[in-house]
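step 3/5: co-fold with pyridoxal-5'-phosphate
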Amino acid sequence: MNSERMVPPAKAIEARTSVAEASSELRRAHELAQDYLRRLDGLAIATRLTPDELRRSLDRPLTEEGVPACQVLEEMAAEVEPGLLHSANGRFFGWVIGGGTPTAAAADWLATVWNQNAAAYACSPAAATVEETTGRWLKDLFGLPSESSFAFVTGCQMAHVTALAAARHRMLARAGWSVERQGLAGSPGLRVLAGEHHETLLRALRLLGIGTDAVVQIDQKDDGTMNPASLARALERDAEKPTIVALAAGDLNRGAFDPIAEVCDLARRHQAWVHVDGAFGLWAATSDRFRHLVHGLEQADSWATDAHKWLNVPYDSGLVFVRDREAHRQALSIPAAYGVDVPGVRDQFEWGPEWSRRARGFAVYAALRTLGRQGVAALVDSCCDRARDLVAGLERLPGVEVLARPIINQGLVRFLDPAGDHDRHTEEVIERINASGGAWFGPTTWEGMRVMRISVSNARTTEEDIEHTIAIVRAALNS
Ligand SMILES: Cc1ncc(COP(=O)(O)O)c(C=O)c1O
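step 4/5: write tokens
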């Protein structure tokens, strides 16, 4: 028998929309959220539940008549929490995941309650204006050309799609081809010269019909950055072909930065489009200590980054900027016959790949206002300091080999096995660390070795977290 208390449908709908009921639901959600944040530091970071256990707990039949809202929220909190990966914990160092700040979460709550459709100015004048202002702030923070266009997208993946759609438009238009009208079949095609790149770049090329065969891999130097001499040779070859050069400003493993100024100089001579993947690395531009790494950034043509990584705002929050606004607009805009034309305003659908969407600009606006320029730079600096301390602390432990010292917030280490099977040993030590519940790292394969990737991207990570993590790794090595 179903233990859930039934609510008659009409009453349920009334309750769901009444202000009194809504306040109790929102209050309850607030209490649950506060309770979660209070306990976060002490929670075992990784779930101990198996997929089947999670299904048994969460996979229930959909009722005919609904369940009272507060009951749903409470049960959800109780049943979901054991299945979460508590990546907001300050000792979580997996992938590149921001912890979320309370301010940004609170602004996101308001955005959800306002439930604005950020498709166009007419749907939400305030959401459009906030995005306009925030876009301007961001260009200024990153030092990008003020005339660049921009869009708020779901993440760096869609930032690549948007930027490369603009690049595809411009490079083919120069060859007398309208890709939006004629498609790609029969076009002169494109080639993409890339060094270190994230998989999302390749998916963007697939989605845009450019295809991954268009990628010409450019040699890298020992530090993982693009070799400009190899790029120069590649640009000379097949020089007639419309060309995009894809750069990494902070790669996932080492946080290495391609030589942006040098590449832009070469690319300009060949009329190639330069796209920069700065999913997290673009934020280095906000810090006096790290800005030199993105020297020449403003000379590129398009830039992709995330706010949900280093700015620590809730998912999903990506950003794209394009120097050639006309190419950007031509690639993305759609005729909206039923739109409300408000002269002199910015309609978001002209610039992003979506139509209806949540007003993700509010959280970014609130985060930037709260932090200010100095706060953003301090967030970047402190994550880099914590990453440096963590890697230095691990290096002092016997049996730890440091493969990449942080340039910014990323590092790589592995664990040496006295019997010589370093890959297996590294995986086992990572498993032990993660099973402890006190810290969490991800494994990856780098230059043929299994390694432990370290990313410090969370505003919550403190010096004590670093000390505590080093102790956890020491214990995992000794067990
Ligand atoms: C360098 C780089 N580019 C792109 C991405 C993809 O970003 P998103 O997950 O926001 O789409 C990531 C994600 O970690 C990344 O590290």
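step 5/5: annotate
The chain is about 45% helix and 10% strand.
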